[in-house]
Each structure stands twice: as structure tokens, then as C-alpha cells.
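In this supplementary section we document a worked example of the pipeline. Step one takes a protein sequence of length 765 as its only input; no multiple sequence alignment statistics are reported here. Step two produces a three-dimensional model, which step three serialises into C-alpha cells for compact storage. The input and output of this example are shown verbatim.
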Amino acid sequence: MPAIRLNSGLAKISIIAVVSVLVLVSLLYVGLRVKAAGPPFTLPVPRNETLILVRPSEGYPVKWNPFIPNGISCGECWSEAMWGSTPWFINNYATGQRIWILFTGPPTPEDNYTVWIYHIRPQIRWSDGYPFTAQDILFTFNNIICKYPQVGAEWCQEYLINITAPNNYTVIFYLKHPMPRFYLNSWTIVPEHIWKNVTNPLNYTNNPPVTLGPYVFWKVIPQYNNMYIMVRNDSWWGVDVWGPAVLPEPKYIVFMGQSTPDVQFQNWINGYQDYMVATDVFPAISLIQNGLKYPGTQLLIFYDPCPRGLWLNTQWYPLNYSQVRWAIAHIINYTVEASVFPSFPLTEPAQMPWADWPSLSYWTNWLISNYSANYCLQGPHGTVCGKIYELSTNWTLAAELLESIGFTKKGGVWYLPNGTPFTLPIYDVGGYHTPLALAIVEALNKFGIKAYDVSNPPNIWQNMAYGTVPDALYWLCTGFPWTFDPYYFYNSFWGVYSREYPVGKYMYSGQWVRLNDPLLDYYINLTRYMSPTSPETIQLYKDAIFEWWKDLPAIPLVQTIYDASVSTKYWVGWPTPDHFISWPPDWWTEFFTTIVAIHSASAPITYVLVKFTQDVNVTFHSIDGRWYGPFKAGEEVWLPRGEAAIFILQGQAVELTPPTTSTSTVTATAVTTTTATATATTVTTATATTTAVTTTTATATVTSATTATTTVTTTATTTATATVTVPPTTVTVTKPVISTALVIGIVVIVIVVAAVAAIIALRRR
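The serialised model returned by step three reads:
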């Protein structure tokens, strides 16, 4: 058989093509292998000691001026790590407890709430070692807050008489009017020894900043999406106040601006980052579901303080009738609303006009328990009794409410009392609000009310302020969730605002729906100057909420779910449903409770002996596999350091001994099973054995329901010993690993070379 000679042009082209394909495949393989070998950035600090948080964007160049617009380059760095905002207190919304930071406790009111006395913690030091004193507060108010209109001068003129400091650790505010809730205010205070030399505080960059928090700013690396690096202050004054247990374990915190969804997905599943808000990053829920299939991934599920709701203009006919507003509420299908809202897991209908937080459960339970009850209010003209409804789909009741005020239905269409068809546009602000609006439109049309959606029209917010739209669907926000005080739920619906800003006049204060209810106004006026916590005030709160619910100026639709994608490769103890003792959103100052609660995944568990000073009705599944709580006053308990720190900070327990950590090798074997269902609940079984020589072996099986469709079982064995390192003083940034764009560029070059070679071969034929 004659040999086959490869001397034809076609054969040459074939050989070149085959070689090119082989080269291409090899380069792609190498590129993908390089990409999987490490993160798309070089971390200048030890990874196992670093907490990496990803946010939509961090600014550059660096500036830390809290008194001007856009004056803070990294808001999370400023508020959570450095405490540049000098929080007077921090609310742990997971537990409903308030942590007093700058002061020994809440201030003391005198003279009918016109005088407030604050006692500063004498241990507080600025990050440069200078003491924090009353002089810093006086300086900030006198030279910045009350001096410049854009900062707070108008507030000072309206409410403040004077501020005095009888000593370095006492500050007294003298007010022009009684303000029973003055203690809920908090202002940024700056160090006098730094800012007294600043000519114009509104032009000052304040870099490097001197702050009060457990971390200090080290540097920013712009080429890595503005990577801000914080270093723990091991001389932080908080240890002197609360004990060693409250010093967070991460020695470094890195804040980074987020990248593309594919990059962030790889960072998440490979443990290159510790935390990001998945709903900010991923365009599809399927990416979250896919990510949960990988070992070491976890989802934190929490409610935004604001449910989504349909606001109704109470000055717009026929929405000025509460019967019409309630009829609309009974036409809406809340199960459908929850199903069309893009969340993971599936959200739930909002039963109340505030977040379904544990910290607000008392008021939630009270409201639900009074549905359909005969409730009597003590008004200015005697007792008024009535009923309120629950939010439910009830077309029969909706029809009865409309007919009670003269509406009629003919040929499947509802007509106003004047004989014209009832038509109602539903306005929404766009985004994920539009599916909610479309579902309402569909329900109204089926019921017989002609409705249509107007999504994100021009000037929607301005038109709301003027009162020239009948409704609007967006977040249902009041001040209640942030303050734990129901007064801030209903006070913005004060009728004074609707009378001062009638329809057609731009509304600067109050809610744009312009509710005008004399009985609700009565409760607002009455509780405005009463003690927020007295039994009399609590009862009036209930009366006011009942009256608001009867009015229903806004219809709650769904609870707003946020998802945070976290990695357990380096840090554990995240606020999961069965460990919800710290607050998950990393754009709030309150995220500090999570920073202090997490524990290194590779280090021995440090235990702290605490004594509870009050009853604490909290149970949680600990990082050691055990369940703890509830606790009784006087009870002494050994708790893992991060969990003990939460109760110490909240003033519910005191530390009896310094933290005790095993210096021997600790081997932990954990089997974790994550099963996603549609319930977002957690079931855990665990066994743990601890020997007298402080060697702990724990085997735990954790089943977390997080609405995924996969069950993944992983087994990990880790051996670690405690180590100590000092903060770095220099950094060498190495060349980044090969990126996707670089691989694509190489591929294009190979294809071009192959094409040129083919042309040359043809010409030589």
C-alpha cells in the first residue's frame, strides 16, 4: 500500500488547524488552571487572619470628612471598623438590645426632658492614644455642628440652648423644648486635638483619620477595586471596658468594591472573600442556588427594615375613603405578591407595616392578636370602639366595603357613586417593584376595577411630594425598626403635615400620602412628650397603631429579603437562622456585632466564663455544635468567646475570667449537610465531647433549609494551633494571576496566527 504524502494545500491547512486547536486548548486549560489557583488579587496580609467584605463600590481618592457630601471614601470602613461616626450606641436588631458605646448607659433626663446628662466612659481613647473627653463633644458642637448650616446649625438654633461639661466625663444638654426621645440621637464627634488646627473643616480630607473603633485605617490599593485595609488596634479601649472577649478575632478587615458576577461567584465558592450581598451582585437567583452546592458556602437571610408596600394618597378621590383603601387591600393576592418578588428563599407576605424582626415581635404579636377583635380606644371625646381586619384576600368583604359607600358593580365592572367606572393606575418606582405592581393590576382587573401599571415614570418622587399621583409602590419605611419606639412608626402621619402641605404644595415633612385623622393626631400629640417606656405610653402606642391600621394609608405587601453570601473557609459563627444573635447587613454600624461574633475556622475555640446579670430568653446553635440558652440571672456559663462577647456588650452578662484558649493541638472533624427547602428554617443535631486536657473533638450534622434544590455533604478535618502576628508595616503587591480577558486575548492572537499560516500555505501550493 503506497504511503500517503501530505503535500497538498488542504493537508497543510489541516495540520495548521489541528496544531492551532491544540495550542488553543492548552492555553485555555492553563488559563483556567491559573484562574482556579488563586484570587484575582494579591492580599498583603495573612488570609487566615483577614476578614474580606465586598460592597458595591468604595471610593477613591481617600477622604474621611463626615461633615460634607460624599466626604467618606469607604462608608463601611468608617462606621463598622473604625467607628469614625463615633456611635453613641449600637442597636443589635437581631436581639433587640441596645449597646451603649461612648457612655456608661442611657443619659439621665431632668426638668421634664429639657435637660439630658451623659456620663462618658473614662477608658475611651482615640486611636492615637489621646483620651476622649467632654471637651471633644463641646468642640465638635461649638465649632462645627452648630456653626455651619449644612452640618446642623438650624437644628441647634431650634432645639438647643447650651451644652456644658462640668468635668471631662460629663456632658449636659439644655434643650428649648421637652424631648423625651433625645437619647435616640447620635452625632459624629471629632478629636479636638486634631481638628482645632483645621482652618476650614468643610474642606478637610482628614487623612489619616483618628477614630475610636477597634480597627484603624492602614492603606488602600486602588488597582484591586479600591481595596481598603483596616488593622486591628490591639490597644483598643473596649477591652478595658468590657473585657478581652470583645476584641474581634480578625486582625485585618479588607473592604473591596465588587467586580463582575462571574468573578464574585468564583471568589465566593473558592473562599477568596468572606462576605458579599448576593442580591447586589448576582443578576439571577440561580447563581445563588448554584453557589450553595459548593462546600464552605453559606447564605445569611435577613429582612430589610422596610417591607414593600403600596402607598395610597388619602387626599385623592376615592382613595380618601378608608373603605376603598381596605377594599383594595382585600383584593390583593398576597401569596402571588410574595411569589413574584425576586428573592431567595421565597419571601412571605407582610402581616404588618414593619420588618418581621425578633426585636419588634412584641408589637407584631399584639397587632395580629387584635385582628377582628372589638377594640376600644380612649379618645378626646370618650371611648370609641371598633374592629380592624387582617391583610387577606377576601373579595366578598372588598365588595361589601365598596357597596357601603355607594359603589356599584354592573357587567363585571365597578362604578363610582357618580356612575363613572372606577379606574386606578398603579405607580411603582421600577426594578423589582414592577412585578409587585403588575400582580396588583391583574387582581384589580379581575375584580372589576380597571387598573394599569405606570412603572418608574419621570419625576415620580417629585410628584409624590406634590401629591399629584394617587398611589406609589416602593419601600414602606418608618423610623420604628431603627429605634424600637412605636412613636416613630406613626408620628410622620401627623395631620399637621397634610394641612401645612396640601396637594399641589411640595411636602418637606411627613408622609406624602397626607393622612388627616384627628384621633391619630390626638395620640401623636399625647405621646410626643410622654416617657417612651411608661405603661401609660405603651397603651397609647397600641391605640395609635390600631387607629393607623384602621386608616391604612399604606398597604404592606411583602417582607423584603436580603441575602448575604458568606464563606466558612476562614470564618465561622455567621448569623444564620439558628445562630441569629448578631446583625448581618455589612453596610450598617450594627454589623460590628457580627465582626465581634465570628471565629476563626482553623483556630481552637476560646471559651469565656460569664455570669448573666438578667434573664435572657435567647437560644442559639453554637459554633461548637451545642445549643445554649435561655439563661437565668445569676447563671454562670462557659461560652465561646464571640457569643459571650454579644451578651457582655449588651450588658446582660459580665466576664468572670479572661478568655481561655487551648495551647495544644485541636482537631475538629465536622460533617455539614446543607439542604435547601422553601422554609428557611434550621434543624441541627450535634454531639460534642471535651476532655480535661482541653482537647476537643466535635462531630456535628447541621441541616440548614435555605431553599436550594441540592443536598451537599462535606467532611473536613482541620488541625491548628493559635498564632500571633503583628500588623504589617510594608507591602509588596505582586503581579495578578492571568485574567479571563488575558486568556481571551491570547486565544484571539492564536486564531490570527493560524489564519495567516493557512494563507501562506495556500500561496506556496
